[in-house]
Amino acid sequence: MVRLSSEILALAVGLLPQLVQGAGLNTAAVAKGKLYFGTATDNPELTDTAYVTQLNNTDDFGQITPGNSQKWDTIEPTQNTFSYTKGDVIANLAKANGQKLRCHNLVWHSQLPSWVTSGTWTNATLLAAMKNHITNVVTHYKGDCYAWDVVNEALNEDGSYRESIWYTTIGPAYLPIAFATAAAADPNVKLYYNDYNIEYSGSKATGALNIVKLIQSYGVKIDGVGLQGHFIVGSTPSQSSQASTMAAYTALGVEVAITELDIRMTLPSTDALLAQQKTDYSGTVAACVATKNCVGVTIWDWTDKYSWVPSTFSGQGAACPWDENYVKKPAYTGILTALGGTATSSTTTSAVSSTSSTSTTTSSGSSATGVAHWGQCGGSGWTGGKTCASGYTCTYFNDYYSQCL
Ligand code: 9MR
């Protein structure tokens, strides 16, 4: 393998568009001008070393979101007693890897401890408890988070407010008050409203637009709208529908991000379903790529092994870009292609596969002839092809990436 000198690396700035070809999802996203491509994770999975190896792969993941460990029931299980241990594990992992952290979430109707759901509240006492929670948690993670999902899933499907304890006790003012409280605790963190089924036009998206306007009408800062993106294979909104909905939000002066992307199917998975899933992932990511103020995409965990889907939707699953054996599915190539990268071996066994899955290659890369020009041939965790096709040399670029040049 050849090592690039610093002079050649400097010259390589002009080569960057080519250098991303064959690179991972985050590398390709950043080359497209996005801030990150990321994934959710959760504390129980962190005992799985093969899982953690891929989670740490910053070529694919430049951002992580704690799936559960910053939620109210974990952090403040009894009133005014804060427990940050689990959330800190993930925040520290992100820090150690140099990954951005999306912090999730502050005010939600779900995963609340019983002292909140069964308490006897007045407007004033519940507001005080909400503000106390937000102030403590945002202050604890000050400087760690790229963004906070300040309010999560406040809307019904028809765009009206969900009858949560927050809404029924405080009224819609709980939203701007939550955002104002978060802004006071950390003026630099991005403050998001986050919801599902607001990725396409309709009553619920109109409700989300109205939430942005409501918060702004109070003179309070809101920086972004998180489009969760929990989709179904074959029923995923089109790229143009998603892009035009993103444009409606960004027209209000906020950024957007796809925050919890996964695309489930009715099991068993078939080649046809996997092909449609690839198309659906690709179109969704392409909508973000096409939207200047869409800052990044987060998948709601990267492997089917730890997806939330099967336990929630009976008979459904296979929603992630990697299967339960950590093998990349066609969806991975769909995402990479949407991000402007070129897959060298689209369904190649992942770097961390713990099973003896077979490796297959696509026409854009061939194990028989070596890795094609511009393809990845090395880097931390890389177990794909390491020998370049005739005429090309595997060239060290950084610890995470070597390329056939
Ligand atoms: O992934 C989370 C799962 O482990 C929890 O059991 C579930 C409980 O509601 O929450 C999941 O994450 C949700 C996220 O916090 C908000 N949007 C929907 C996600 C999937 O349910």
UniProtKB/TrEMBL annotation:
Chain spans, region Disordered: 343-370
Alphabetized SMART domains for the sequence: fCBD, Glyco_10
UniProt keyword Signal present: yes
Pathway as given in its UniProt record: Glycan degradation; xylan degradation
Keywords: Carbohydrate metabolism, Glycosidase, Hydrolase, Polysaccharide degradation, Secreted, Signal, Xylan degradation
Enzyme Commission code(s) on record: 3.2.1.8
Compartments (UniProt record): Secreted
Signal peptide: 1-22
Predominant place of localization: secreted
Gene Ontology biological-process annotations: xylan catabolic process
Residues annotated as domain CBM1: 369-405
Pfam families the record matches: CBM_1, Glyco_hydro_10
Gene3D superfamilies membership: Glycosidases (3.20.20.80)
Keyword Oxidoreductase among UniProt keywords: no
Catalytic site: 260 (nucleophile)
Top-level division of the source organism's lineage: Eukaryota
Domain GH10: 21-338
Cross-referenced SUPFAM superfamilies: (Trans)glycosidases, Cellulose-binding domain
Catalytic activity: Endohydrolysis of (1->4)-beta-D-xylosidic linkages in xylans
Molecular function terms, GO-annotated: cellulose binding; endo-1,4-beta-xylanase activity
Name of the protein in its database record: Beta-xylanase
Organism, scientific name: Penicillium cosmopolitanum
Organism ancestry: Eukaryota, Fungi, Dikarya, Ascomycota, Pezizomycotina
